[in-house]
Write a structure and sequence with these properties.
The structure holds 2 protein chains of 2 kinds. By secondary structure, chain A is an all-alpha fold. Helices cover 82% and strands 0% of the residues of chain A. The chains are: A mainly alpha, B alpha/beta. At the A-B interface, helix 7, helix 8 and helix 10 of A face loops of B.
Chain lengths: 256, 250
C-alpha cells in the first residue's frame, strides 16, 4: 500500500495537477485556443496521430537512431574514459580538451556533420554520438577514479593480472556510478537527437514537431512534446531505474 | 628455534624514506627480524610510528628504500577493513583468490563450503557483504585469506574496528586456527593485550623513524584467554616500554 502510494499515487497527483491547471488557464480564455489549446484537444490530436499511423513510425525511427547512436557513444566513451582514468599522461594531455568539448552544445556539431556526411542518417547519428560520448567519457573517468583503493588492493593481494584487475575489480566496482553516467549520457543523446531531427528534416519525432509548427497546429506540437516527455520518462524508469535499483540493492545502498 | 633455515619470512635491514621535493622523512630505520614456521610475531608501536608502512613493505605492496624481504611459500594479507567486494556474494568473495584454472567449479564450491564452515558462516554463502555484521565480514575475509592455503598471513590491525566481544571471539578463533593449521602470522596491532595474547614473540617498535626497541618472548601455554593473569606482567612491561617511548623526544 505504502509503496503503491509513493510510486504511483503521488506522481499521478502531479500529472492530474498539471492537466487541471492547464484546463483552468484555458477556461480563463486569456489566449485563443489556436494558440493555447485545451488538454482535451491535445489528447484528441494525439489519438488521431496514433491511429492514423503517423506517430508510431516516428517514435520507432527516433528510438532506433537513439539506440544506435547511444550504443556507439557508450563504447567509445567507456574506452576513452577508462584510458583517461588509468593513464595520468592521457588525462593531463586530453582532460582539459574533453571537458571543453563537453560544454559545446551538441547541436553545434550539426553543420559540421552535414558538410562531412551530407543530408543523411549518418549526420544525425554523428550528432547523437557527439552529444552523449563526452558526458559518458567524463562519467566513466570519474567512476574509475573514485573506486575505493581498498578494492584495488584486493586485486594486488591476490596477484591478479592487469587484465583481471580490469575485469574482476575495476569494471564491477565502477558499475553503480557508470549507470548513473549512462543515464546522463542518454539524456544528452535524446536532446541532441530531437534538436537534430528538428533542424534537419527527416522522419522522426522532431520532424512531427516541426510539421505541427508548419501547419500552425499547436495541439500537434504539444501532443508530440508530451510524447517525448513520456518516452523519456519511460526509458528512465524502465531501463536505468531498474538497473540502478538492482545495483543499489546488491551493494546495500537502500534497504531491501 | 628461528634459525635462518626454518624461517618463513626474513626481514633484513629494512629502511624506508619518504621523499618529496622539500622534505625527507625517515619512517623505518634498519629493521630486521625473522618469523619461523608456525610462529606468531606481533608488532606493537606508538601510533604513527610507521607500523602500516612496515606492513606494506613486508607484504610487498610498497618497496623499501633499502633492505630486503624474503619469504618462502604463499603469502596472504588481512587489513582492518575486511575489503569484501560489495558486488559479490560471500561465496564468491571467499573464492575470489582461488586460481580458476586450477580448480573445477565443484571443487571450488566444496572448498568455499569448507572454509565458510571453518569461520562459522556456512549459512551466509549467498548473502551480500552489506547484510553481514562487522565481525562476520572480517570472518568472511579470513575465509578468503585461508582458502588459498597461505604459509604466512600478514595481519594489519584486523580486529581493531570491531567491538570488544567480537574481537575477543576472533582472537580465540585465531588461536584455534593455530592449533589446526601450520601457518606463520605477522600481526600488527596497537593493542598490547592482543599482542601478548596472540604472539609467540612481541616486537616493540620505537617512534618514527621506527626501529625495533625490544623483543619479548611470550612463554605462555595456549590457548590463552585475554583475562589470564599471567599475561599481565608482559603487558605491564611492554606498556611501560611504549610509554617511555612516547615520552622520549617530546
Amino acid at each position: 500500500m505504502n509503496k503503491f502510494t509513493h510510486s504511483f499515487l503521488k506522481p499521478l497527483l502531479g500529472w492530474v495537477g498539471l492537466f487541471l491547471s492547464w484546463e483552468i488557464v484555458v477556461r480563463l480564455k486569456i489566449w485563443p485556443t489556436y494558440i493555447f489549446p485545451s488538454p482535451k484537444r491535445v489528447l484528441m490530436v494525439w489519438w488521431d496521430l496514433l491511429t492514423s499511423g503517423e506517430l508510431l513510425p516516428g517514435v520507432f525511427v527516433s528510438l532506433q537512431r537513439l539506440g544506435i547512436g547511444f550504443m556507439i557513444a557508450v563504447c567509445i566513451g567507456t574506452l576513452i574514459g577508462l584510458g583517461l582514468a588509468r593513464n595520468k599522461n592521457l588525462k593531463q594531455v586530453f582532460g582539459g580538451l574533453i571537458l571543453g568539448l563537453q560544454t559545446l552544445p551538441s547541436i553545434c556539431w550539426l553543420p559540421l556533420a552535414l558538410l562531412w556526411f551530407g543530408l543523411n542518417e549518418k549526420a544525425i547519428l554523428f550528432v547523437v554520438v557527439m552529444g552523449a560520448v563526452l558526458s559518458i567519457t567524463v562519467a566513466v573517468e570519474g567512476a574509475v577514479r573514485t573506486i575505493p583503493p581498498m578494492y584495488l588492493r584486493v586485486g594486488k593481494m591476490f596477484k591478479l593480472s592487469r587484465w583481471n584487475i580490469y575485469r574482476r575489480i575495476i569494471l564491477p566496482a565502477m558499475l553503480p556510478t557508470f549507470v548513473t553516467g549512462l543515464k546522463q549520457g542518454w539524456a544528452f543523446a535524446w536532446r541532441s537527437l530531437m534538436a537534430g531531427e528538428m533542424l534537419f528534416i527527416t522522419a522522426g519525432l522532431g520532424q512531427l514537431l516541426m510539421v505541427g509548427r508548419e501547419l500552425n497546429n499547436i495541439a500537434q506540437v504539444m501532443a508530440i512534446m508530451l510524447t517525448i516527455i513520456l518516452l523519456g520518462l519511460l526509458i528512465d524508469l524502465l531501463v536505468f531505474g531498474v538497473a540502478e535499483r538492482h545495483l543499489h540493492k546488491q551493494w546495500g545502498y537502500i534497504k531491501r | 628455534m628461528t634459525s635462518a633455515s626454518s624461517a618463513k619470512l626474513q626481514v633484513r635491514n629494512i629502511s624506508k624514506v619518504f621523499e618529496t621535493k622539500k622534505t625527507k622523512t625517515d619512517v623505518l630505520q634498519d629493521i630486521s627480524f625473522e618469523v619461523g614456521s608456525h610462529e606468531v610475531v606481533c608488532l606493537v608501536g606508538p601510533s604513527g610510528c610507521g607500523k602500516s608502512t612496515l606492513f606494506n613493505v613486508i607484504s610487498q605492496l610498497d618497496q623499501p628504500t633499502t633492505g630486503t624481504v624474503i619469504h618462502t611459500g604463499r603469502l596472504a594479507m588481512m587489513f582492518q577493513d575486511p575489503a569484501l567486494l560489495p558486488w559479490l556474494t560471500v561465496d564468491k568473495n571467499v573464492a575470489f583468490g582461488l586460481d580458476r584454472k586450477q580448480y573445477s567449479k565443484t571443487e571450488m564450491s566444496q572448498l568455499v563450503e569448507r572454509y565458510l564452515k571453518i569461520v562459522a558462516l556456512e549459512q551466509f554463502g549467498s548473502a551480500y557483504p552489506h547484510e553481514l555484521s562487522g565481525g562476520m565480514k572480517q570472518r568472511a575475509a579470513l575465509a578468503r585469506t585461508l582458502i588459498i592455503e597461505p604459509n604466512i598471513i600478514l595481519m594489519d590491525e584486523p580486529f581493531s574496528a570491531l567491538d570488544a566481544q567480537t574481537r575477543e571471539r576472533l582472537q580465540q578463533f585465531v588461536q584455534t586456527l593455530l592449533q589446526d593449521y601450520p601457518v606463520s602470522i605477522v600481526f600488527v596491532t596497537h593493542d598490547v593485550r592482543e599482542a601478548v595474547l596472540l604472539g609467540d614473540r612481541v616486537l616493540v617498535l620505537t617512534k618514527r623513524p621506527a626501529h625495533i626497541r625490544s623483543e619479548y618472548k611470550i612463554d605462555l601455554p595456549r590457548p590463552r584467554r585475554s583475562f589470564d593473569s599471567n599475561l599481565d606482567s608482559y603487558i605491564r612491561s611492554i606498556t611501560e616500554q611504549l610509554q617511555a617511548e612516547a615520552l622520549l623526544y617530546t
